[in-house]
Amino acid sequence: MFVAVCCDLSSSEHQKSIGVLLSQYGFQKIQNTVYEHTAINEEYVTRLKKDLDRYTDYYDIIRIYQYPVENTLAITSLKQKKWRKLMVKVEKTAK
Questions:
Q1: Which domains are present in the chain?
Q2: Residue 93 pLDDT more than 80?
Q3: Predicted pLDDT of residue 71
Q4: Which residue among 23, 59, 67, 91 is the one 20 to 30 A from 16 at the CA level?
Q5: Is 5 in contact with 44 (CB distance < 8 Å)?
Q6: Collapsed DSSP state (helix, strand, coil) of residue 4
Q7: How many Cα atoms within 13 Å fall on the side-chain side of residue 44?
Q8: Cα separation of 64 and 47, whole Å?
Q9: What separation in angstroms does the CA of 42 have from each of 10, 38, 46, 48?
Q10: Are 74 and 89 in contact (CB under 8 A)?
Q11: Neighbours of 30 (CB within 10 A)
């Protein structure tokens, strides 16, 4: 599965620790605070979310984009230490 992680972190210390954590999971740094992985499974993503929770505080914001998850795009966000998930389904249109 393809996974992108976008971070808006409250301190440079958090940015460094999250960067190290993501590289341990095999993510590549694409932009200053954007990381991508093209072949990670759901089990590792679940574990990653728990690890991210340990390294962040109330002021950090993280968005995780996963595709495919049940043939849909899943957007998971961590804001104010709460995880939320949004599933984006594409409906087929008739031609």
A1: 2-88 (3.30.70.240)
A2: no
A3: 85
A4: 67
A5: no
A6: strand
A7: 15
A8: 13
A9: 27, 12, 6, 10
A10: no
A11: 12
Q: Which residue has the tokens 């109330």?
A: 58
The span from the CA of 11 to the CA of 13, in Å, is 5
Residue-wise pLDDT tens digits, 23-80: 999 999 999 999 999 999 999 999 999 999 999 999 999 999 999 988 899 999 999 9
Q: From 19, 23, 5, select the one nearest 64 (Cα to Cα).
A: 5
**CA 90/CA 13 separation, integer angstroms:** 38
What's residue 90's pLDDT? 76
- In the chain, the amino acid numbered 88 is V
